[in-house]
Design goal:
Length: 266
């Protein structure tokens, strides 16, 4: 596997963990994967029943995933009560002046051709599994989570989790670090002239708790603790292609395309 800094390093021990993951997955009669459909709802654009559905998921997690339940409880207690405010928080986190993105391939590869390969492969698997992606791309996190319980190939599920989801989630969580958030905000202030404020009383970092909830569940279901430890150093390294760097690059391109007003003046 390519070990350049914009892909998952072979030294992380992914393939050494493959046999263990496959072995766990073959016990599908004992291992329930349906909760990944519920976890996907945490990352859908919030609708009226968003908090209610979150509480239902919390009840499901309490017994077998106590660490995930703790993270989810913090998330649900931290989101705004009004649906409109929840939607604004979601948009500010993932879409406009965003902290990170839910497009997993972009997290791992940016605009590199490897993302196009991933999208092509995922699109095929979604189609074969009958998993509708709606208006989002094949690597959109909720789409990938809904794909997990529909896949029958244990090796493919192991690869999806070990080589794609776990590394991407670790990188996404890193984007909520205060220093990285301030650097992104500095870029947004420079190019947009102002920052979009979240709803009064909202914690702009609260979706980090939702991402940690998912990572905790994956760690338990797929025995990924050792893998995460090996990836920890990699995810913390400075990378030439990460979300912060991609934002800076995109801002520079847009400013150079229209230096008179940077393309952002209204």
């Amino acid at each position: 596997m390519d070990t350049s800094d914009n892909v998952i390093p072979a030294k992380a021990g992914i393939h050494q963990n493959q046999e263990k993951l496959d072995s766990r997955l073959r016990g599908n009669d004992k291992m329930k994967l349906a909760h990944y459909g519920q976890l996907a709802e945490l990352f859908d654009f919030p609708q009226v029943e968003f908090a209610v559905r979150g509480r239902e998921l919390l009840d499901c997690l309490r017994e077998n995933y106590p660490s995930a339940a703790d993270e989810l409880s913090c998330f649900l207690n931290g989101i705004p009560e009004r649906t409109l405010d929840q939607q604004e928080l979601y948009t500010r986190t993932f879409d406009v002046q965003s902290i990170t993105t839910l497009d997993i391939g972009y997290v791992l590869f940016g605009d590199d051709y490897k993302r196009a390969e991933l999208l092509s492969n995922l699109t095929r698997e979604h189609k074969l599994a009958g998993n509708e992606c709606g208006s989002e791309l094949a690597d959109h996190l909720p789409n990938m989570l809904r794909l997990i319980p529909k896949l029958i190939d244990s090796e493919l599920v192991a690869e999806l989790v070990g080589e794609i989801l776990v590394p991407a989630l670790m990188l996404m969580i890193r984007e909520f670090d205060p220093e990285r958030m301030e650097k992104k905000n500095a870029n947004y202030r420079k190019h947009y002239k102002t920052l979009i404020e979240s709803a009064p009383g909202s914690d702009l970092t609260i979706y980090c708790r939702a991402l940690k909830t998912l990572l905790c569940v994956l760690k338990e279901d797929f025995q990924a603790t050792s893998m995460m430890e090996k990836l920890e150093g990699w995810s913390g390294q400075r990378r030439s292609m990460d979300f912060l760097g991609l934002i800076e690059k995109e801002m520079d391109i847009e400013e150079n395309a229209n230096p008179a007003n940077s393309g952002f003046d209204v």
